[in-house]
Amino acid sequence: MRFFPLVLAIVALSGCGSVPQHVCPLVVPWSADDQKALSRALDADKDPLIHRAVQEDAGFRAWARGCQGAQ
């Protein structure tokens, strides 16, 4: 029982020296045909919610590519 505080301190401090790992999301590339089809669909659909969702996805994909390049 005397060694419990020492063991607890060692366990608590053992994570301090480790380097944090960065995990980036996977970006699945779109084919040229898919990009053209999406462009046509967006031109035909004027719903602002759809356009906002696509813009947010584009921003997320750009962030994920930047994350992958930073590693």
Automatic annotation (TrEMBL):
Origin: domain of life: Bacteria
Protein name listed in UniProt: Lipoprotein
Organism name: Gluconobacter thailandicus NBRC 3257
